[in-house]
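FAQ: What does the model actually see?

It sees only this:
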Amino acid sequence: MKTEVCIIGAGPAGLMAAVFSAESGTNTTVIEANTAAGRKLLVTGGGRCNLTHQAEPQELVRVFGAQGRFLRHALYHFPPQDVQDFFIRLGLATRIEKDGCVFPASDRSGDVRDLLVKQAKLFGVTFLYGKRVDHITQETDSFIVQAGRESLYAQKLILSTGGLSWPQTGCTGDGYQFAREFGHTIVPPKAALVPLVTDESWPGQLAGVAVNDVAISVRIENKKVCSSGAMVFTDDGVGGPAVQDTSRYLTDHLPATTKPIAVTLDLIPDLDERTLEARIIEHIVANSKKKLVNVLAEFVPRRLAAVLCRRAEANEELPAGQLKKDVRKKLVLTIKMLPLSIVRTRPIDEATVTRGGVCLTEVESKTMESKICPGLYFAGEILDVDGPCGGYNLQVCWSTGALAGMSASQSKK
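And it is asked to produce this:
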């Protein structure tokens, strides 16, 4: 079987690459190991699919830090507004939430996947499902992709096989090996956007308890970094969006083999210490006979309130009106500066995103083509790029996928 452009992997980057490759009439084939496209796409955003983040390209470049320079051309070529317009043209209504996250109005990831597949097929893309690629070789004028008994000859090849996160969706990291065989360096994969394990055991007492808004601060290499958002306590630590964003800064320093990494939680970031204490005093005055833990439950979940009392050495059963000033101040400080000691991340197969992958210095940022192997392109999570929660990582998939697909189709022989 022959094709002009072969794409390995039908995730978000691969599907977008297929659409942009085939829209100009280029014969395009997608090979997918799963029996359907977009398995990982279906679980993004808790099944709602956080399409992108409402932001200008320059803001995205800044958010990605050192990786932003590489992504600059792709993000300007296909920015968040263009992504929204693209899906709207396909018939997908979108909704922008207060935090800038963009979701399908239907809150169904399947709608996003189905529209991409439909559009690709309208442009004539051929999908080969249930075909795991065994090996790839290159001859003078083509790549030979061997998938079981199927041999496919392609002028151009796009690797969009993802990373190692969420292996239950089919991510195995096999694309890394293909890239190595063509001479590419692979930055060792690590977990990014992942729950964190604490040295303390008490978070396990709160497993499942969620806090809607926390601020997490940590000092790494003499630089203070902060993340905010929702958090949930787990059996062995903490998780949720705020924790996952924090994990991006910690993953290169974990596991902590000598001593844990100290982080601080502000459980009520909207109020400073003085204001919070004043609010607590108001509630105590109005509910002096109530148990202290029940008064605190007006500010944080009750189970968490009980733990905070114990950590501040306050009697949770005490009538609130009997709370002494020094204990009250200690309780306020505990709420505003709750310390945790991070020892490691959860395994990479629990991560939302993989850090590491194909070394960016070996890829041409204006085309996504390999600098080592002409005709080979990369898109999506296989690249050494990872961003925070909030639609940033899907935006990278859309932008790099569109650029790789367009570049490969334009340069076909």
